[in-house]
Write a structure and sequence with these properties.
Elements (H helix, E strand, L loop, with lengths): L3 H50 L6 H17 L8 H12 L4 H12 L9 H9 L7 H25 L6 H12 L9 H20 L11 H4 L4 H13 L3 H11 L8 H7 L5 H11 L2 H8 L5 H5 L1 H19 L1 H4 L3 H20 L13 H10 L1 H4 L9 H4 L1 H14 L3 H4 L2 H10 L1
Helix pairs in contact: 2-6, 3-5, 5-6, 6-8, 7-19, 10-18, 11-18, 16-19, 18-19
Length: 430
Amino acid sequence: MLGHAEFEFSLINKRAVSLTIFLNQRFFSLLLFLLFLFLLGELLNLCISAITSIKDIRDGVSHWFLYLWFLVFGVAFCAVSEAADSFRYVEDFLVEHSYTWSQYVLEINEYFAFESNIKDIYTLTVNFLVGRFSDNYHWTYLIYAAVFGFFYIKSLKIFLRHNKVSNNIVFYVLLFMFCYSNPIYNINGVRFWTAAWIGVYVALNFFVEKDYKKIVLLLLMPLIHGASVVWVAIMAIALLLSRFQSVTIVLFIASSFVSAVSYLNVLNDYSFLLPQFMQNQIWSYTESEMALERMSGVSEYGAAYADFLIALPGYFHILLSFLLIINRRKINRNPHAGHLLTIMLALAAITNFLSGIPSMGRFQYFVIPFLVIVWAQNYEILKKYDKYFYVVPFIYAYSLLYWYRRMSAITELYLYAFPAPLTVIKYLFL
């Protein structure tokens, strides 16, 4: 047994050890707290810098902030809703990330031989490449956001170069319309909407910038989404109609009243003439369970899209287009502006007619950047209509609410509440 002195020494030693552990814990906690304060300060500095830089969106620094935000959004993207396209992309990733090189090459060969059931090689390639170093799907969405954001910002810069509106409410509404036509949220359906920004970027370069070299990028679109070849056809038809402004006006007016036109029977009857991957695409738009739900209005999203309030922004776009038509004589005094107006009306007419096909209505969003640019280019003629832009917040209110609800389904509070470095660490490395 221990003597009294030995017992006292042992007790003192245990207390000293406990005190040491306590102090170490406190010191570690203090360090963590100081680190948190440092990161919070860095976040505040970043926010202040970001706000300062985006006071003028024309500033190149603001574009970098926007692009970094896209990357962080991609990292934090959470594919948890079974109703979302992203859920199926993650399911594909769980299979394809473990492909061997021979399996990957076989899929590619079958795709180009029109023998594969896969709809594209973009997500397949990203899944395979990420699978070389990780089984974390957040890496794939980082890449998706990087590609999406690149063409988004490149297209935005074209709008800013051709904008003639000062920093007033009209400018910010037009800027909003341009950006909201295909927001970063749409990496939820990454294949089509990434191809969309590529298509818009090429079309803006071709019709607005007269930079015909970018047309080669159209070859990327079917590799990302098979149905995007439709945009190539739309551009070609619009180019053919560009000499006939009166014809395009008539077509646009007629197309504005298209509501329930259906071409499904024609598509189904003649789909056998097309390659297998396009047959699969048509089937997914016409006869699949999802397509039938959309057409019957029983799906989660079908009823919302049919709602009048969701359709209000589209009616506003039609109004702006009609105002452009009314002022076409003044616009036509500038040959380039007149030609671009004709192109815009042709694109709008064609996509309006296509909207009768399930899922083809998405091509209407491709036209919004053109509408915005035509309006911004001819602002001196159109400034008398500024009053119409004051109601835009009310027009888009329900659409934004609906968008927010969908955003909340694929992002967590972590994205908005914590500094970007912690967000990256959490989703990519923990």
